[in-house]
Write a structure and sequence with these properties.
By secondary structure, this protein is an alpha/beta fold. The chain has 11 helices and 14 strands. It has 2 domains: 117 residues, ornithine cyclodeaminase, domain 1 (2-Layer Sandwich), CATH 3.30.1780.10; 156 residues, NAD(P)-binding Rossmann-like Domain (Rossmann fold, 3-Layer(aba) Sandwich).
Length: 297
């Protein structure tokens, strides 16, 4: 059997948010319903080089695994690199190997779009983005498909003006300036200590937080995680990997259960909702299967 090999440009040609967002919604609903076989990722520290190497397998109709590295101190190259391998579920034969960096970037934003679609107020019009890297870019693209934003603000320690000019949004001087009055907030930085403070948030705000995926890392302060209604991609993974969710010390709801209609999403216009994403293997495998399907169409 010939194995399909796809590099990042080939993946980019075949993956669109319009297809990916509903596919990720279905995947997260299946995960919450127990229809996905997926262990929590195994993470191997690469201590001499300040990196991490993780293995993320899943079976959800599609069968595969992602091998991913995370080197948060990288400068001038991406902090995440990955390869995704797909197998034929019926026989175990290898089907495809493809670059997983872009898939990781896009499926993370797609999961936030799934959450935003179900948790943000329908009239949300102001978006704040903390960060100016690939996740800031991907979240801007994905979230614009689920809400109509008329005001987009970005703050970053370094590159906010360049990001704002490139994407036609507004750079602001501080994280607080970005967040105050925002309806939807994205936290997409490499912070390992709390960056977003709950006191900055307006009533009814929705937060997507996608960083700090180690149990001893934080990107949200105690005020936020203990007062917001917390949603996650995987309860098991978040309680093991997310310092913010561990600090919340409260019941968390899987967003897949909201997608499936098993649990309510937003209950009142005033409550603050938080989607804390650690990233799960089923998202990668489903996205890779979508890429492979597009190749054969």
């Amino acid at each position: 059997m010939d194995i399909v090999v796809l590099d990042e440009p080939a993946v980019q040609q075949r993956l669109r948010y319009q297809d990916l967002i509903p596919a990720i919604a279905d995947a997260l609903a299946a995960l919450s319903a127990g229809r996905v076989v997926q262990p929590v990722r195994a993470v191997l520290p690469v201590a001499p080089h300040h990196g991490f190497f993780a293995v993320m397998p899943a079976y959800a109709g599609a069968l595969g695994a992602k091998l991913v590295t995370f080197y948060p101190q990288n400068v001038g190259i991406h902090t995440h690199h990955a390869v995704i391998v797909l197998f034929k579920a019926e026989t175990g034969e290898p089907l495809a190997m493809m670059d997983g960096r872009l898939i990781t970037e896009m499926r993370t934003a797609a999961a936030s779009a799934v959450a935003t679609q179900r948790l943000a107020r329908a009239d949300a019009s102001v978006l704040a983005i903390l960060g100016s890297g690939v996740q800031a870019r991907s979240h801007l693209a994905a979230l614009r498909l689920v809400r109509s934003f008329t005001d987009v603000r970005v703050w970053s320690p370094r590159n906010a003006p360049a990001f704002a000019q490139r994407h036609g949004v507004k750079a602001v001087a501080s994280a607080a300036d970005a967040v105050r009055g925002a309806d939807v907030v994205v936290v997409a930085t490499s912070a390992t200590t709390p960056l977003l403070q709950g006191r900055w948030l307006s009533q009814g705000a929705h937060v997507n937080a996608v960083g700090a995926t180690r149990p001893d890392w934080r990107e949200l302060d105690d005020d936020l995680v203990t007062t917001a209604r917390v949603f996650v991609d995987s309860r098991e993974a978040a309680l093991r990997e997310s310092g913010d969710v561990i600090a919340a010390r409260s019941e968390v709801t899987e967003i897949g259960a909201v997608v499936a209609g098993v649990h309510p999403g937003r209950r009142t216009p005033e409550e603050v909702t938080l989607f804390k994403s650690v990233g799960v293997a089923v998202e990668d495998v489903v996205a890779a299967a979508l890429v492979l399907q597009r190749r054969t169409e």
